[in-house]
């Protein structure tokens, strides 16, 4: 029968980039903390699930605030002052945050939710392509779509697929990040200066 240490280690192993040894370290770290620390951690995890929602427009996770007029939209999608003509498509939330930190982008966002492995036969099971199509159909303000994906084979495969899908929409400019990003680079690990340069030199 699996004991609690093994069960918790298995849960930690589901975290991105966490192997069995690191997962075990997390468990033993918690065992060394006092009860107040563990209780505080549990409370914050509960708050994370209860106080964070997924935006109905860009699909990023955001902290729900009482001052938001529409609780289904994040602060970026609800902001009337953002540039409505440009939409940047990223793989995941952390990529969106990196783009935001550059201070060079004032447009709209869309979180794809993943990338397409080469030879993937069911793209809709991997990425939010249906939702992206719907966004482009409904939002007539969008004039340019920036595909801001990781510079690696899977990112390039996804980029080619998206370019083909978006090109079906008339009068939409499709651009990609300039290769200030090194080949093989994941957007998540790109620094703000490099990413800013890539945005400014998009093609």
The SSE order reads: HHHEEEHEHEHEH
Q: How many individual helices? A: 7
Mind describing the biggest β-sheet? 4 strands, parallel
Low-confidence blocks of residues:
none
Percentage of residues in strands = 5-15%
State the helicity in percent bands: 40-55%
Could you explain the architecture of this structure?
The protein has 7 helices and 6 strands, in the order H-H-H-E-E-E-H-E-H-E-H-E-H. The chain is α/β, with parallel strands linked by helices and 203 residues long. It folds into 2 domains: 4-52, RecR Domain 1 (Helicase, Ruva Protein, domain 3), CATH 1.10.8.420; 82-200, Dna Topoisomerase Vi A Subunit, Chain: A, domain 2, CATH 3.40.1360. The chain has a 4-stranded parallel sheet. A two-stranded antiparallel sheet has the order 1-2. Helix 6 links the parallel strand 5 and strand 6 (173-176).
Can you summarize this structure?
The protein is of the alpha/beta class and 203 residues long. The chain has helices spanning 4-13, 20-32, 35-51, 93-101, 129-138, 153-166, 192-200; strands spanning 52-54, 61-63, 86-90, 108-111, 144-147, 173-176. The protein folds into 2 domains: 4-52, Helicase, Ruva Protein, domain 3 (Orthogonal Bundle); 82-200, Dna Topoisomerase Vi A Subunit, Chain: A, domain 2.
Features:
203 residues, alpha/beta, Helicase, Ruva Protein, domain 3, Dna Topoisomerase Vi A Subunit, Chain: A, domain 2, 4-stranded parallel beta sheet, two-stranded antiparallel ribbon, 6 strands, 40% helix
Write the layout of secondary structure elements.
Layout: H1 4-13, H2 20-32, H3 35-51, E1 52-54, E2 61-63, E3 86-90, H4 93-101, E4 108-111, H5 129-138, E5 144-147, H6 153-166, E6 173-176, H7 192-200
Parallel strand pairs: 3-4, 3-5, 5-6
Antiparallel strand pairs: 1-2
